[in-house]
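Late entry, evening session. Most of the bench is empty. Finally got around to the prediction I had been postponing all week. Sequence below, unchanged from the version circulated by S.P.
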Amino acid sequence: MISVDPTLAHPIAIETPPRPSRAWRWLKRLTATAALGALGAGTWWLWQAGLLPRLQADAKREISAFAADIGFRVKDVLVVGRQETSPQALLAAVGIGYDNPILDFDAKAAKHRVEALPWVQSATVERVLPDTVVVRVQERQPLAIWQHKGAFHLIDRTGAAIAGAGVERFPHLLQVVGEDAPEQVVGLVRLLQGEPEIAGRVKAAVRVGNRRWNLRLDNGMDVRLPEQETETAWKRLADLQRTHRVLEREVQVLDLRLPDRLIVRRPGDPPPPPPGPGKAQET
């Protein structure tokens, strides 16, 4: 190697150490290989003896304790998106207290516990070093109230019941009745919203024979929807309301089950004749 000293007019030769012999280089390689082999054998023996996991756990505890000593402890738990879930239930599910070592905190296990809470649809939990845990929750959105066997249950936008949720604070929601009503109410709400001028007048819906809906309006009128072509019938009712104000009239039942006619029953009208032999009457 040649180096030039800028203070001199001529180069200065730097003596290069002699190159090790080939035998010496092979000896060094053999020594390194033997050391790695011994290390691998030692690790295998520790694993077979059941000592390696214990040593790893001890090392993890030592690292966590050291980190806690220099300030890696929980000082804040920040929650984003909580409205219905109580702070006490959420903190209990997170499962970490103030001043606990943050490296000991299992964020994945906490996520599963938070997502098991009745109102929580999904959650993320993460450690933000040195001292903060951030919890983001997406809560379930109530859609309807299901009346079933004398009890009332809050139904979310997926059609699932929200366990333990009270319905008292949601009197504006649509009430539905029927065995399969929770599974079908999402489609019903979507149907009603297609005609917003009359959708707000529907206060309850009864599932008939697990096939179709009867709607109860805010004035006590019953609207019977067909099993097939339900959207067409609902649009027809909206058109009748715009042109003839049928929902403002003194009518007890509007039957839309026949596509080519509207059957109207007024208060005081006699009930329809009983069905013929072998036929079941549907109301």
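Two things to note before I forget:
The chain is about 35% helix and 25% strand.
The mean pLDDT is 80.
Will write this up properly tomorrow.
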